[in-house]
Design goal:
Elements (H helix, E strand, L loop, with lengths): L2 H15 L8 E7 L2 E6 L11 E2 L2 E2 L3 E4 L10 E3 L2 E2 H7 L4 E5 L12 H20 L4 E6 L1 H12 L4 E7 L9 H10 L4 H7 L1 E2 L1 H12 L1 H13 L3 H15 L4 E2 H13 L2 H4 L2 E3 L2 E3 L8 E6 L7 H5 L10 E6 L5 H4 L3 H13 L3
Parallel strand pairs: 5-8, 5-9, 9-10, 10-15, 15-16
Antiparallel strand pairs: 1-2, 2-8, 3-4, 6-7, 11-12, 13-14
Helix pairs in contact: 1-9, 3-4, 5-10, 6-10
Length: 346
């Protein structure tokens, strides 16, 4: 099988996966501009009934993706869906969709997500569910947004789970060195573009994945007739190939404040007039780290233990890299089920 044939099989894998992407029924419950919140419904399109613990419904759960990533990462296929598992475990499940920025959003900053979008989304979830508190599940930077929200809103977050979320950006290896070195130097290019294009992030991710990215393509050679494999492969390929732009000012701020200055870890991360200290997080936290994650290595995730007392935070290694830890074949048993059990303990 030559490269042209491999490419054709890859396209077939994407076509097989397309109908199942983000296919679990959902209904929009809140929208502001480009971002929205959707509630996960039962398969027949009716509201899903939450489980009851100690005489009261379990707190609703809001899933938070990182910037550039579509929320379909939580709902890859009907038989491989994080949102379905949470819903089926009796958790009222909501998904935050941050939309697709364009050049008109070039001035959007991380402040806008931390101080406005996530608090408004959390309020919308609590109002829709009729709850005083909610739980958060965040992937990568979405997990850091969740930590910052919990730190800034004491008493409102029941439980918080993060997946592949770095806290100490100096422990991110080559990725951290590259990001710190790029801070300031790429500003003219980002200003000219207005946003960091999604295709550029996809290319960067493939380069950082190195040999594994090549191995994944070569796997098609041995599984070209295996439709379940192709469907799973196409889901991940569509996820990585469908990254959305990153607002220019937010990207520059990310490189400067997180990658170079490591402000999340030194407790001097400031948005607007507010300083966010992770030590202020007052809810139980379960943090997963991919055992082969080259983007958010275990050391960068474990650093959360330096901010919270041991009875409040648990860090669990899980199989997979930055993608596989959330969406790979081992994710349901290693990450999704433990997360559901953790959230049901509220």
């Amino acid at each position: 099988m030559d490269w042209r044939e491999l490419w054709e099989v890859r396209n077939r894998a994407r076509a097989l996966a397309a109908p199942g992407l983000d296919a679990t029924p959902k209904a929009e419950v809140h929208r502001e501009g480009k971002w929205s919140v959707r509630v996960v419904l039962a398969d027949d399109g009716t509201p899903a009934a939450p489980a009851v613990a100690r005489g009261a419904p379990l707190p609703p759960v809001l899933l938070v993706p990182p910037l550039m990533v579509r929320p379909l990462v939580f709902d890859l296929q009907p038989d491989h869906s994080f949102v379905r598992l949470l819903r089926d475990r009796g958790l009222a499940t909501y998904v935050l969709d941050l939309g697709e920025p364009d050049r008109g959003d070039r001035a959007v900053r991380l402040d806008d997500y931390v101080l406005q979008a996530l608090p408004a989304a959390a309020d919308a979830v609590r109002a829709h569910a009729g709850a005083t508190r909610l739980s958060l599940v965040g992937y990568c930077l979405g997990g850091l947004f969740g930590l910052l929200h919990a730190a800034g809103h004491p008493g409102q977050v029941a439980r918080l789970a993060t997946v592949a979320t770095p806290v100490d950006f100096s422990k991110m290896g080559f990725v951290g060195l590259l990001g710190a070195a790029a801070a300031g130097r790429v500003d003219p290019l980002v200003d000219a573009l207005g946003v960091v294009p999604g295709w550029l992030a996809t290319a960067g991710f493939q380069l950082l994945s190195g040999r594994r990215a090549v191995e994944r393509v070569l796997e098609l050679r041995d599984h070209g007739a295996d439709e379940p494999f192709l469907r799973a492969y196409g889901s991940i390929s569509s996820w990585l190939g469908g990254l959305v732009p990153y607002p220019g000012e937010a990207f520059k701020q990310f490189l400067r404040e997180l990658m170079r200055r490591n402000r999340a870890h030194d407790s001097w991360l400031t948005f607007g007039e507010r300083r966010f200290d992770l030590a202020a997080v007052d809810c139980p936290v379960l943090a997963f780290a991919g055992e082969s994650d080259a983007i958010a290595p275990l050391a960068s995730v474990v650093a959360l233990r330096e901010h919270l007392p041991p009875e409040r935070v648990v860090v669990r290694p899980a199989p997979g890299g930055h993608v596989g830890v959330l969406g790979g074949p081992a994710a349901p048993a290693a990450v999704w089920e433990p997360t559901a059990e953790f959230l049901r303990s509220s």
